[in-house]
Design a protein that fits this description.
By secondary structure, this protein is α+β, with helices and mostly antiparallel strands. It has one domain. It contains 5 helices and 10 strands. The chain has a 10-stranded antiparallel beta sheet. Helix 1 packs parallel to helix 5.
Length: 254
């Protein structure tokens, strides 16, 4: 189980604050955003693509700051589930999560079944680690920047109602809290809609690779996590699958 703990603690055990860093800009004109547009000049295609990518991520940063200033309270229901390589559920736990700005998060378990070890030493450890990240205001999504990644727009796609730019992200360092993969970014809200990838560095010699998918949903003007799935390939022991489902969000309900 150490493989699961190592992976989740580094990446999938994300705080709601981190998840909510993916929030859109307001629909009305934004003065800060208007200053981000690159002046029209004659450029060769490679320079133009680089400027487009840099411009996109500057807009993401503006959106991130906008969200941080407006998110005050959040609650929701989260379900953790761990399955083995035979698709058998090892353990499952449902919790109510409550966030209060700027650095308070609380988990309340409502149901649990399966392995007591996983429930108490994996899921509970995840929650404690997440509470600590929120307390010190360490936002995982804030690391998705050109300083940490080589980023390139490689195409366009549509997910649900979102027209997206598809961005290939290559980490500049081999670290467990960085990844290599693709991101789908909504071209209107400048929010991440989906990420597919694998960890840049394995948490352990025993883990060959950790692949993951993260999906987001738009609720009350904020893009919040809807589902995370991670599969870790363990030497000798096969694969483990962790899923985290998010539902019943309530945002800024005073």
């Amino acid at each position: 189980m150490g493989s699961v703990i190592g992976f989740i603690g580094q990446f999938l055990g994300m705080s709601l604050l981190g998840a909510m860093s993916i929030a859109p800009l307001p629909s009305c004109p934004c003065e800060n955003l208007s200053k981000l547009h690159v002046a029209a000049v004659r450029l060769n295609s490679s320079v133009r693509e680089q400027n487009n990518t840099e411009d996109l991520f500057r807009k993401l940063n503006v959106r991130h700051r906008w969200q941080e200033a407006r998110l005050i309270r959040l609650s929701g229901v989260r379900t953790y589930k761990l399955e083995n390589d035979k698709d058998k559920i090892v353990a499952e736990e449902a919790v109510v999560v409550e966030y209060r700005a700027p650095t308070t998060e609380k988990f309340t378990t409502t149901a649990g079944k399966g392995s007591g070890f996983v429930l108490h030493h994996v899921f509970q450890r995840l929650m404690k680690a997440e509470e600590e990240r929120v307390r010190v205001n360490k936002d995982p999504d804030s690391q998705i920047t050109p300083e940490n990644y080589a980023l390139e727009i490689v195409g366009t796609d549509r997910i649900g109602n979102s027209d997206c730019s598809v961005v290939h992200a290559v980490p500049k360092r081999k670290e467990m809290d960085l990844f290599e993969g693709k991101m789908w970014i909504d071209n209107q809200d400048f929010a991440i809609v989906k990420i597919i990838g694998h960890l840049a560095k394995s948490p352990s010699f025993w883990i060959k690779q950790v692949d993951f998918v993260r999906n987001y949903q738009k609720i009350d003007g904020f893009w919040l996590l809807s589902r995370e799935e991670a599969i870790s390939a363990i030497r000798i022991f096969g694969k483990e699958r962790l899923t985290v489902d998010y539902r019943n969000y309530t945002v800024n309900d005073f």
